[in-house]
Fold this protein.
Amino acid sequence: MKKIASFLMFQEDNAEEAMNYYTSLIEDSQITSIVRYGPGESGKEGTVMQATFTLKGQEFMCIDSSVKHQFSFTPSFSIFVTCDTEEELDNLYHELIEGGSALMPLGDYGFSKKFGWLNDRFGVSWQLNLPN
């Protein structure tokens, strides 16, 4: 076994947009590779056949699916972010929820100082936590 990475499958040809967005919001993050579909291949030319990016050192893989499925992302899998400050948590929450929806609005739920859970505009679920 060489490694384990989380894998995100986008269905609206927006994997690259999502990667750019996520890496712009979280410091020490970057897109590490992109392979695109070429002419005559199974996906739409120029879209992401396979890509990797890191968020604070955590590796993710993603694709633009050339097959339309009857499913998308589900909140049962989420990206959990432990923030250092309330300002960091608030800023990230407000950026990610733009065009998305709240699952648990920012608040004190008793298990941390502040917590929020949301689906972003791409349908990816995020849990943002400020520990006690």
Notes: The chain has a mean pLDDT of 96. The helical segments are 15-25, 86-97. The beta strands are 6-10, 30-36, 48-55, 58-64, 78-82, 101-107, 114-119, 125-130.
